[in-house]
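$ run holo --ligand "zinc ion" --emit tokens
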Amino acid sequence: MDFLSSLLFSLCVAYGIGCNVEPVAPPVVVPPPPVEEDPEYGTLLRDGCSKEYPGIKWFLYADGEGGTYTEKDRYSTECGYSKTLTLSLEQEVGDRFTPVMVDVNYVNNRGEDEPWGMADASTSLGYAERVDRDTVFIWGDGLVGGGVFTLGREEIQFRMKPEPTCDVSNGIDCQGYRQRTNESMIYYGEDDGFVVTWELAVLIYTRGDNVEIISDATESQWQKWGERVEQYNLVYEQSGVHIRYKLVELKLATFSSLPDLQKLRRHLDVDILLGHGTSYSGTCGVARVTTFFREGYPPASLSKCDIYTDLHELGHSVGLAHGPENQAYEAVGYIFPEFGHGWNDICGAYDDLMSYGYEDKFHSNETLYCSDIFSRDTGQVAGSRQWSDTAYSLNRVRYEVALIHDENKYEEQGEDEVLQYIIVGPERIGIEVID
Ligand SMILES: [Zn+2]
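-- output --
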């Protein structure tokens, strides 16, 4: 370093100017940035309507840690959400066995199904029942005329009419078959396969002096009888009988005769009655044959053997007979004399349930082949209207019997209700069949 340079360096060191040394800046005091507090969790930051999906409103919230989260209201009327309820009729006219069918269409603006319930429904006539997501059935309750079904604020009109009947004239019914009674019974045509329910009471025989109902059956008895009634129904199903029993009363009672059962039946709201566990001496069962079916008078029979005896006696009680070629107590149908009775050797080795044959485990049926009922194919039909078709006879009386106790019957409600006692004349002398 020459002298000059040395001097300058000294000067710059001494005075802090003009040399290559970084000057030391005085410290600048920067005030700290104001601390921005995060909005509390759940603070609504923004909201708006979805542009793509009408009816949806979104909400943007603070999560309290500097982030956000969103929520959606899928049912925002403000953003265009709306619901439309439409009622239409699939079947406009009904009766006690053919329902009026109402189609319920309840959708929102996106075309999605909306939930609804029968709590918001009412009908001015009949009995309304929801059968699936969008269908309501309205069954007649015995009153006929115009009715209105209401759901929410929508309503629709329908009609109830009397059931069609098969009229009888000069002992011949609408199908040309002989009928021994002149009761025009409900009839929907030959192809009608509608299955009706017969409400059944079983009284279990209990020893005692008076004729009375003692108590309800135990749980295990209900279990056992429930299974037994399922077996009845299986026989009917296999034989093409469009009736299913529903066990609604199972009681212990003291009785020993058919008149005893007729006394007890007034306490039972059922279509048909079976007393089980006793019968007349030397028999497996006895029945009182009913050929006119009247409300409140369930046909009654006694049985003490197997399920086929039960079905045999139940069959007698609604007009079936043994058949003209039976081994004993020969008789033709009490209502339909041409076919309302049993027969032997129908499907080769098999016999109708109403006959005395040993293989009597089915009801004859002209519309079935033996192979429909039994595993063995005999190529034969399982009955004929010319000699035996007990399934058809049962099917023909099924609606009348189902109405002996009409569970859906219209009952007058109101403060001015006056109880009217039904005055009953002397009972028609019935036919008793034994075994
Ligand atoms: Zn018999």
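-- notes --
The chain is about 15% helix and 30% strand.
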